[in-house]
Design goal:
This protein is about 40% helix and about 15% strand. The chain is α/β, with parallel strands linked by helices. It has a six-stranded parallel sheet with strand order 7-6-10-11-5-14, sandwiched between helices. The protein contains 24 helices and 25 strands. Helix 5 crosses helix 10, helix 7 packs across helix 8 and helix 7 crosses helix 10.
């Protein structure tokens, strides 16, 4: 090639993109390579693991001749050996580290999938599942039952589904199956279990959800085994349950499962950083291939938030015989850093299609017969999607279901025309004046609750419960339509309405959110508290779980808190994993804003249990729903085809 391509700057170029490109140019003299490096650095900043150099929607402008010249550069390789950069066969350009993350992660997942066995006889499996799902309506729980039956013998399992589909309650039953049949599954007689999540707040929520799931299942199993447990002559059997055969009578089986239930932890869930022993001084982890985790079973919730590098670290830190269970919703926002790992994993397996042997094993006791995947589908049977929502049907639920996949144009047109679908409302918000009107309307609709919070003596528990009822969620962090601007506006409007002193940072009734983990105090990024005036002065109250998984109240002086900010409005990213009664979703009126995506809106309105409203222009909402997140990368190809 006689003349190099001129460097082109992406519209959203960061300083680091330009600096890295300049560094490469100064050392190689290649404008062509510098342009590619600028593109891949910018792509990584937007969550992609690579830059697709022939993407018609980018400005890189690499034609066939330019690509051929780039492949010949000494700093560019095909991934077989170390080079600073990799250009693959599909013209995806990688930083070496992200190429390695994808390759190592895919290899680890595929290797685990190849180790699957079917260790439990069909009759035993069916009886155990019947006991675990006693009283649940047939058909609606089919995929929950399938997940519980499919996990024995797996070393890697993904359970996914939308809000209200019962992922956490199902994983409790999955763990019980693994505990009851541990030896058959190649695990120790009493496997150790670790619970983890990407953030401290998500870990706390997992603790609470597991505790609730265990309590509910305890009641069910107690009822099923009550006749057995009341018979005094059979009481000595309790000490011998572990040595009894697997084909116990149903009453004995229920009691056996009840005994195993106590071995599922619910007092401690760790962040992934903590689980893997993150060392901030050198940005490394104590656990990895040379020092694997001791736990036999690892459960990770909110897996959609886990980025490419962290998921690779997790897979490589597991012992070969350990079991990894991922829970999450791929329809939600992807990780902040590079990759869309959960979405790629789920997309690499046909939905709820099983290998022929497993399909034959499960089909007799499922009302909805599973599809049969081809034998070369590596992840079939390792990824199951819960499809039945246990929430009552409503306009809100219709919206959530519509947004999880490509929205039905007719549904969207009806919503835009009618401005409401039951408990899902659309409010026009095109400028700061309209935004103020939306805020005033929100205050009017919830005036009684807000007045109680701000002007009345109130018990801390009641105050925190009230906070869980209402939440404004913002697509942006900064600007008048962002969380910071909304918090200032809301404080001023509340001051005008209820007479609070918004000029002071601290006032009775102020909600706040922790923005940095503080392990010493047990406060984590995402914890929400409320400032209340009492006998000891103004204290900030939180509901935190103790070591037994029971929620309790703790208060702190405002001066003792780690980094925090007001929480009348928070970003949608911070709301992931939370749930509120009523939600308002604020989208910026600039439809050209790249933050607007379908996943953003879906994540936001799916936080609501009863009512949601969207403050947006019609154009910005249409733009968001027509723009799914599409992150570039090769993980899905590797999982489907075994290579890029």
């Amino acid at each position: 090639m006689n003349r190099p391509l001129p460097p082109t700057a992406p519209a959203d170029e960061r300083a680091i993109d330009q600096t890295l490109a300049q560094w490469v140019f100064q050392r190689t003299g290649s404008t062509l390579l510098a342009t590619a490096v600028r593109a891949v650095s910018n792509a990584e900043g937007r969550g992609h693991s690579c830059a697709w150099l022939t993407d018609p929607y980018t400005d890189a402008g690499f034609d066939t001749e330019a690509l051929a010249a780039l492949r010949q550069h000494a700093w560019v390789g095909d991934g077989a050996h170390f080079n600073p950069f990799v250009l693959d066969a599909r013209n995806r350009f990688y930083l070496w580290r992200n190429w390695q993350h994808e390759a190592k992660l895919a290899a680890a997942i595929l290797q685990r999938c190849q180790q699957r066995t079917l260790p439990i006889p069909a009759d035993t499996l069916a009886d155990d599942v019947d006991v675990l799902f006693a009283g649940m309506p047939p058909g609606t729980a089919d995929w929950q039952r399938a997940a519980v039956a499919a996990v024995p013998g797996a070393r890697f399992f993904v359970l996914t589904g939308g809000p209200g589909t019962g992922k956490t309650t199902t994983v409790v039953r999955m763990l019980l199956m693994l505990l009851r049949h541990a030896r058959a599954c190649g695990l120790p007689a009493q496997p150790s279990i670790a619970l983890a999540a990407p953030t401290g707040k998500a870990a706390q929520r997992l603790v609470q959800a597991i505790a609730r799931g265990k309590a509910e299942l305890q009641v069910s199993l107690s009822q099923r085994g009550s006749d057995f447990s009341r018979d005094s002559h059979t009481q000595p059997k309790l000490s011998r349950l572990k040595s009894l055969p697997q084909d116990l009578p149903l009453e004995d089986r229920a009691l056996d499962l009840q005994e195993h239930l106590h071995h599922i932890p619910h007092a401690d869930a760790r962040t992934l950083h903590r689980l893997l022993g993150y060392r901030p001084m050198d940005n490394t982890f104590s656990h990895g291939p040379r020092n694997p985790l001791a736990e036999d079973i690892v459960v990770v919730d909110e897996a959609s938030m886990v980025d490419l590098a962290m998921m690779r670290q997790l897979l490589e830190a597991l012992r070969p015989d350990a079991v990894l269970i991922l829970l999450g919703d791929p329809g939600q926002l992807a990780s902040v850093d590079a990759g869309s790992v959960l979405a790629d994993i789920v997309a690499s397996a046909p939905q709820n299609q099983l290998p022929s042997a497993m399909a034959g094993l499960l089909a007799p006791w499922l009302q909805n017969a599973p599809g049969t995947a081809t034998d070369d589908t590596a992840l079939a049977g390792h990824v199951l999607t819960l499809t039945h929502s246990w929430r009552a049907g409503s306009g809100l639920q219709r919206g959530i279901e519509a947004l999880r996949d490509t929205p039905d144009p007719a549904w969207l047109d009806t919503l835009l025309r009618e401005r409401a679908d039951g408990d899902l409302h659309l409010r026009h918000c095109s400028n700061p004046q309209a935004l103020r009107a939306c805020v005033d309307g929100w205050i009017d609709r919830h005036a009684e609750l807000l007045q109680t919070l701000l002007t009345s003596p109130i018990d801390a528990s009641a105050a925190l419960q009230s906070l869980h009822q209402l939440q404004i969620l913002c697509a942006l962090r900064d600007g008048p339509f962002g969380a910071h601007g909304l918090n200032e506006l809301i404080a001023r409007r509340l001051a005008a309405r209820f007479g609070i002193d918004s000029d002071h940072a601290w006032y009775h009734g102020r909600p706040l959110i922790i923005t940095r983990n503080d392990y010493a105090r047990g406060l984590f990024n995402g914890d929400v508290g409320i400032a209340l005036q009492g006998a000891e002065g103004l204290r900030v109250w939180f509901e935190l779980s103790d070591r037994d998984g029971n929620a309790g109240l703790r208060s702190f002086s405002p001066r003792a808190l780690p980094a925090h900010e007001s929480a009348w409005a928070i970003t949608i990213h911070r709301s992931q994993g939370s749930e509120y009664r009523d939600v308002a979703v604020v989208l910026p009126p600039d439809e050209g804003n790249r933050v607007l995506t379908r996943e953003l809106v879906y994540t936001a309105i799916s936080r609501a249990r009863s009512h949601a409203e969207i403050w947006a222009t019609d154009e910005s909402l249409r733009t968001a729903l027509a723009r799914p997140i599409q992150r570039e990368g090769g993980l899905r190809d590797r999982l489907v085809f075994g290579k890029t």
